[in-house]
Amino acid sequence: MRALLFDVFGTLVDWRRSIATQLEAFGSERRIACDWYALVDAWRGEYVPSMDRVRRGEQPWANLDSLHAASFDRLAERFALPSLSAIERDWIVKRWHALEPWPDAPAALERLHEHFILATLSNGNVALLVDLARHARLRFDAILSAELFKHYKPDSETYLGAAALLGCLPAETMLVAAHESDLRAAAAVGLRTAFIARPGEYGSPPAEAPALPAEFDVAVRGLDELAERLAG
Amino acid sequence: MRALLFDVFGTLVDWRRSIATQLEAFGSERRIACDWYALVDAWRGEYVPSMDRVRRGEQPWANLDSLHAASFDRLAERFALPSLSAIERDWIVKRWHALEPWPDAPAALERLHEHFILATLSNGNVALLVDLARHARLRFDAILSAELFKHYKPDSETYLGAAALLGCLPAETMLVAAHESDLRAAAAVGLRTAFIARPGEYGSPPAEAPALPAEFDVAVRGLDELAERLAG
Q1: Which chain A residues touch B if contact means CB-CB below 8 Å?
Q2: Which residue from A135, A203, A231, B168 lies 20 to 30 Å from B87 (Cα-Cα)?
Q3: Across the interface, do A142 and B143 touch by the CB < 8 Å criterion?
């Protein structure tokens, strides 16, 4: 194995709390009352459907910043936010560029970097991922994005395209992700797979940790454990 | 200014001595007599013509590893090298993935990284640049390559495409390069430009340092000086 591809949202960063915390501060400063966590959950709820419209060809290619902006505009209406300036709206959409890492991510990536090529493979656009990696101090050798292939995951073009750009065979490449559908799509085209449990991605984790899925090459409860397994 | 794009061969790494040194060791081990510096110079001589055939549409897109392989095969014949195995030939072509940095490059990039987004913008393919950045310990936020645009520099698609992927306007983006033609093409589409003198790129530098060109936004004699000017 030569290269690790990382899903980003949910796998490496805690998008939900990061966005909600920033929007709460924004709302409190401007005295805008809103259930910001509900807004963030609804925003994330628009994520897959908005990409699916592109994947099915119902709308031309649009990068994730654009999809986030369009879905935020719909939600601003649904949540009855007061009218925002263009600068405020762009600032809000850019909160996806400034997410906090899960606590294990920065050090585990440094450690894995000594042994493997590390790249993102995210539906986030390149500019978003570059800003995010700088903000969260996540070390990658390359920023690979759906934007480079004009295909969103789980389209096979993304997994195969990323391996090819790194000069690796699919079997020399492992996708690391917290989402089974992403991993299954990667496995279907020959990549290896590592499942990282992130039970708190969508809110408080259940009292009892769910069982790890058995269908992937590796399944672990955090990135420290992945680093231990792959680079220990 | 938000992002610095770096030309790589000649600007950040000493390709000539790096390749020749490795080929000399290869030849000495196998008792192959050859003027390896002459071969490296001839190999580099094929670089622009081979990309120009792609740029003019005379041959379909081929990444730099492929162009290097094809031109090496022609030179092996011209330099009357003995027959090499496929593994030896691939190893030789991959020497372009393992070039040594100019001594000022690693520390200057670390320093600039605190202030700007740093990316490659090279005609080298992504896999080559990833391997090279790891080998030479060059810090980038993103690996941008002609390969992503299926256009070689100095086609404008490369400069504008790189700025767009980083979410920057051309005027927020500066190309850093040791070659005036590259910088002129970037300036023509609105990027800022920094010229780095590398008088030893093609062999021993002249006794007297040539004057710095006046037409670029910045012109310096090394990356330390660039870091001092931009991040001092």
Answers
A1: 65, 117, 119, 125-128, 130-131, 133-134, 141-143, 147-148, 165-168
A2: A231
A3: yes
